[in-house]
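Feature request, filed as a ticket because there's no other form

It would be nice if the structure record came with a short human-readable summary line next to the tokens. Right now we just get the raw output. Example of a typical job, pasted below so the devs can see what we mean:
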Amino acid sequence: MPYLTVTALSHTGLIREHNEDSLVAGPWTLCGTVTENPQTLVFPLGSPLVVAAADGIGGQPGGEVASALTVRQLAALGPSLGSEDAVRDAVSLCNHAVYAAAERDPELTTMGTTVAGVVVQESSLLVFNVGDSRVFDAAADGLRQVSVDDSPPLSPGRRTTSLVTQALGGAVTFSAVTPHLTTVPLSVGDRYLVCTDGLTDPVPQDVLDELLRLHTGGRAAFELWKSAIEAGGPDNITLALLTVGE
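Raw output as currently delivered:
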């Protein structure tokens, strides 16, 4: 019987005082905390299963609140996310929830978060994102980004930017979002990486690709985290590595 393993971790990094990232894998959520070691979960393929990372917007209040609200909402809705329309509606609900929470508490005004993830089904994978957290296909012929960054054009000589053009929440008044959505076939042996920009900003994609060619499972997750730490660990680092087996 085909199954899915999800190996995940979330870490503060070396600069930030606390972790504003959150993660969901099926019914399991990890919100604003630190995993000392990669955690591996195993799920049967069948009903829709959501795996996503949310990165609270830094420099604004309540990033950890916004990211936690988002992944908990996705965890509750996960089994019902069987279509692109269902995912689109779920992301909209998350956006409304972030704004509603900020409206109830003035100290949370303008809190916001990115989100990127996948909904795993028996023979397909639905990829979605808002903001600059990312989803990669770790294919045999090279790592390929499947999500679409909501970021302004980069200036000459720059590889990354902390600016986003779309997020859940993040403004004083409500703004609707349009998530990026794509559905791809899923087969035994496929691997996908879901992560926040605390991994992809300091570590170039070719380095991520090399590490994923050399390692699998918990060792791969550890080496990815280690690469971000060795690059200075400038931001919170959250990642989930998905592998389809049988």
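Something like this underneath would help us a lot:
The chain has a mean pLDDT of 95.
The longest strand covers residues 3-11.
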